[in-house]
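Running this now, will post back.
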Amino acid sequence: MTDMRTTIDIPPLLHERIMAYAQMQGRSFSATAVEALLRGMAPIETPDNLSRSPLTGLMVVNTGHPVTSEDVAELIDEDD
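Update: finished.
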């Protein structure tokens, strides 16, 4: 697969940061920018104990046992 050539507009400070990092690494500006884009676009892995509630859409942590109001109160008291 051949690389695609394109033009994008980036803020001057970002250009300077990429250029400085590329020089520190002994790499080209393009290679450094591509690496940064790939890292930024990488999917975020969800830990096994997290899921999304079908009811609320919020993230839910599976602790392996039910968490009661008393459990929460105990944890709050430990922080005080």
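Strands lie at 50-52, 59-61. More later if anyone needs it.
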